[in-house]
Design goal:
By secondary structure, the protein is mainly alpha-helical. The protein contains 3 helices and no strands. It has one domain.
Amino acid sequence: MHIQTQGHDQPKAQSVKLSGALVREAEERAKHFNRSKAGQIEFWARIGKIAEENRDISFDMIMQILLSKEEIKNKETIPFNFSSKDSNTRVKKEPKN
């Protein structure tokens, strides 16, 4: 599986010609997801690239992987305790002081 996320060191923006229909559709969809038109088109391109590189993975799985990566990056995860007798037991996250 090959899923990469682009960091904050993004190259300089470039202009490209897109059909008016695609831009209008992106604008409508962007409203629902609180994205800009450009952000929506970039999202579609990113998901399409990942899907093309990983044809055996569903859209839902791609979204779950990307969400998990964001949770890890933002330290929003709960460590799993592998040594516990109950394999479903999770370790409580200790608050940082």
